[in-house]
Structure formats: C-alpha cells, structure tokens
Amino acid sequence: MLASLNARALVLSLVLLAVFLGLWEAASPKQELAGELTEYELLMGGAEPKAAVPPPSDVIAKAWEELSNPFYDAGPNDKGIGIQIGYSLYRVLSGYFLAAALAIPVGFLIGMSPLMYKALDPFIQVLRPISPLAWMPLALFVIQDSQASAIFVIFICSIWPMLINTAFGVAGVRKDWVNVARTHELGAFKTAWIVILPAAAPTILTGMRISIGIAWLVIVAAEMLVGGTGIGYYVWNEWNNLDLTSVVFSILMIGVVGMLLDTAFAYCARLVQYQE
Amino acid sequence: MSTPFLSLQNLSKRFQAPKGGEALTVFENVNLGIEKGEFVCIIGHSGCGKSTILNILAGLDEPTEGAVIMNGKEVSGPSLDRGIVFQNYSLLPWLSALKNVTFAVQARYKSWSKKQVHDHSMKYLEMVGLAGGAELRKPSQLSGGMRQRVSIARAFAIQPELLLLDEPFGALDALTRGSIQDELIRIWSGSDQTVFMITHDVDEAILLADRILLMTNGPYARVAESVQVDIPRPRERANIIHHSDYYDIRNHLVEFLATRSKELAGKQEDGVVAEPSVVRFGAHGVITDPKDNRKPATSRAE
C-alpha cells in the first residue's frame, strides 16, 4: 500500500459513513398513502404523514435549507440555526471565562500553598460532584433571571476541572525549576510568570479543555430548562413541534460545534506544550 | 589568621528520625576555608552529604548547626552572588538556550537594556561554543553536552562571587566531558571566579582543582583531608599525566576512596577539632601540615 495511513483512514471513514447512511435510509419507513381516509382525515383535508425518524436524505435537505440561511429571525419561535448556536456559544463562553478567571488564580493559590490546599479541599470535594443543573432552581431564585442563571450553571460546571488541574500542575512543577527561580532571586510574581505558569501551562490547558467539553454538554440541558433561545431550546422546541428532522439536524450541529471547540483548545494546548 | 573569603564553620546536618528514634547525622563539624579565586573540588562516596553541603552553600538548604560565612556575611537563602550548575542542567525547557541565559542576566543586572543583556549573554554562549543558530534551540533539541554548556554559560554570565558545580559532567560521556572540562578551565582561567565543585571523577578533580577535599563515608561524615594540587597551570588533559606529582596524587585519592574513606568513617570523639589535615605532594613525598593536631591516618590503628 502506497497510500498513507491518513488517506486509508479517510477512505474507511467515508465507507463507514456511506454504509451507516444507507442502512438508515433503508430502514426508514416510506410514507404510504392510507387506503381509506378516516372521517377526521377527510375533515382535515387529507392524511397527516405518520411521525417517524426521518431518513438521512430528509436531514440533509433540512441541513441545506437551514445552513443556507442560518441567521434569519422570524419571531421568538423561529430563528435560524446560526442565531441559536450563537446564543449558546455566548452563554458557554461567558460562563466559561468567568470560571477561568476565578479557577486559575485560586488553583495557583491552592497549588502553591499546602495550607490553602488542605483548607479548601473539603469544599471542592463536596461541591464538585453536584450536577450543574441541580444549581438551577437556586440560581433562578437568587439571580431572578433565566439567561444569567444559564450562564451561572456553565460557570459552576466549568470551574472544577480548571481549578483542580491548575492546582495539580502548579504543585507538580519540578523542584529544579523552582530552584532556578530561587537562585536567580526572582520575586514571587516573576517566579509565577517566568517559571510556574509556563511549567504548569500544559496541565492547565488540559483542564480548560475538559471544562469546555463539559460546558458544551451542560448548555444543551440548561437551555432546555430555561428556554427562549439557544441550541438546547431549539432541540426541545422542534420536539414540541414534532419536527424530528430538525431534531436530528440540531443534534448533529451540537456535535459539530462541540468538536470545533475541542479542536480550538487542543490547538492552544499544543502552543504551550514543551518537551523536557 | 585572616578570615578566608568563604568559611564553613562547624557545619552539621541531621535529619530527624520519623518516630522519635535517634536523629540521622549526615555530616558533623565541617570546618573549611576557601580563598577567593580558588578552585576546590570535593570527593566522597554517595551519601556523605556533598550535595547537601553544596545546597547549603547555595542557600537552598539550611544546616542544622553551624554557619557559612561568605565575604564576612552569613549565607541565608539563595542569592545571585552564588551561581549553580546542576548535574541535570536545570534549564527551563520552554525557553530557548539564549532565553535561558538572558532571563538570568536580566535578573542580575536589572538596569541593563535589552541589547546589553543580549550581547552579554551571547558573549558567554559563544565562549562555550554555542552560536550560529544553536542558541535559538530549545534544550530538548540540544545534546546533553550542549545543555550543560548552556548551563555553564548561564552560571558564568551572572558573574557570581562563588560558583557551585554539582557533578556538572556526571551525565555526560567521556569525550564530551573532556571537551567541556577544557572549556570550563579556559573560562575559569580568564576570571577570578571562586569555584566549589562536586565530582566523582578523580582525574577531573586533579585537572581542575587547586585543592581537593576528601570526605569520609556517612553517616557522621566529615572532610578528612585537603589535598593540595600544586601542578602548575595552565594544565592540559594531554600532558598533565606526565607531571611527576600526578600519579602520587591520583593514587592517594584512589586509595582514600577505596579504603580510608571507610576506615575513617564514624562518629568522632568529642573535643576533636575537625579541621581537615592538609596533604601536599612535592619533591619530598607526602607532607602533612604540622598544624594538624589530629593523628595521621596511618597511625590510627594503634
């Protein structure tokens, strides 16, 4: 075989996709014309199509239609997919960066001070396993705003991986490197900036990457609860509309956006990676 | 008697035993003086506390008892006055070789401009043979020998009053080791740098040092002898072995490491002044310092 591993993998991926779509298409029941119309159907002017999981051809057609005009806005219940994803990204990123702004400095503190580590550890261990959505009622009551509550839920679920990874990375900086800082009489700020931050950066970025993944998982559920806008709301709204084609399409979009977010963070992680 | 540039006074290091038991004494009553511009090597078996002494000199560790006085001031905490080269190079892997030197120079000479810092750093990198693009590589893209050269350049570039070398060539192959030894001696000759170096290599010690300190085995290790190396400089690896004293010194060191480091080991009786006995080789063979009031090693058996 002359083809590279990548080329062969691509071919195999495409074959698997074709087989999967083919089976799905074949398994989808064709809408048959009912022989006899019921009295109700006659009154309604013909038969309603029977609800079923749509075949991929319908989904592709829907995707084409939605993606060719992603930013239309025809009222509260009819917005383009681009607008819905935009709302979701806005909530995810604002909650996420608020979390980073808190988690990374606190992680530094915990990583550098064994006292702070021991003092804060019980709180972290209790708060961390709480499902982010469990905060929702409390957030709605305290904040009194559903949009801000969704952002708060993202904030609270993004904190933990970043906090723990930062603390872990900072505490694990090799003693030799800390000694380099000490023997060159670097002050606390310079030590953090020149030695500890670059040394811990790969671990911190790993935490940030885990956090963004979790945040994107949680936003869909949060938006189903708070409603109004966003990709999570869109899925639920289309379910209420019994538009399964749109549901399948939006599920795919959630996956694609999540993948792009992860790729972006993987790229950032490579920038700070160093080889010993 | 005038105070030497660097003096170690009654230095001891003990580690508390975990559960009440007797504390482990690594070394005890180490008394030494080192003059400005002197190159001193210290040799001893693993576990005798050489590295601990070096870390205490660096200010990275603290003695349990005693003190280190440099230039009339007690050493407490690390300082740019004392530069260190570690066996594992201790370069920051995310910085280029050049940046690994410039950050140190910047820390030493805070008022310097970027250009001054860069030129000064490059001067020292060129001295160890790193230039023409190699200085822009990260440590992981350099060989072990190159990395240690960067580390040496960094230590010399901050022009410390005391340079501490902790087995700097321990991880290098013999050929690389030889060429860096030559470079080290060349750079050192052009400066009035005081050097304190740990090594396991007897030949390296004779090549580099003005004086070789010999430590007995731990626990209760001490500096038992101070061997004067009076072979004239400049020394070269190729012809130093032809000097008449070379093998006398070498045999003395090897014999110490092989047998006497064990024989002399153990706790000393109280009241013994633990100054190392001075050993000197010359036309008349071994001369022990008359000031030494401890019994010579050879008559210890009685």
What layout of secondary structure does this protein have?
The complex is a heterodimer of chains A (276) and B (302).
Chain A lengths: L4 H23 L11 H6 L11 H13 L12 H32 L1 H14 L8 H8 L2 H26 L3 H9 L4 H39 L4 H10 L3 H29 L4
Helix pairs in contact in A: 3-11, 4-5, 4-7, 4-9, 4-10, 6-7, 7-9, 8-9, 9-10, 9-11, 10-11
Chain B lengths: L5 E10 L8 E11 L4 E5 L6 H9 L6 E6 L2 E2 L7 E4 L11 H12 L5 H14 L16 H14 L4 E5 L7 H16 L4 E5 L3 H7 L2 E5 L7 E6 L8 H4 L5 H18 L13 E4 L6 E2 L14
Parallel strand pairs in B: 3-8, 3-9, 6-7, 7-8, 10-11
Antiparallel strand pairs in B: 1-2, 1-4, 4-5, 9-10, 11-12
Helix pairs in contact in B: 2-3, 2-4, 3-4, 4-5
Counting DSSP E segments of at least 2 residues, the number of strands of chain A comes to 0
C-alpha end-to-end distance of chain A:
36 Å
- Kindly report the spatial arrangement of strands forming the biggest sheet of chain B: 6-7-8-3-9-10-11-12
Named CATH architecture of the largest domain in chain B: 3-Layer(aba) Sandwich
The CATH fourth-level homologous superfamily of the largest domain in chain B: P-loop containing nucleotide triphosphate hydrolases
Residue fraction in strands of chain B = 15-25%
Let me know the number of strands of chain B: 12
The structure class of chain B reads alpha/beta
Number of helices of chain A: 11
CATH topology of chain A: MetI-like fold
Distance between the termini of chain B: 33 Å
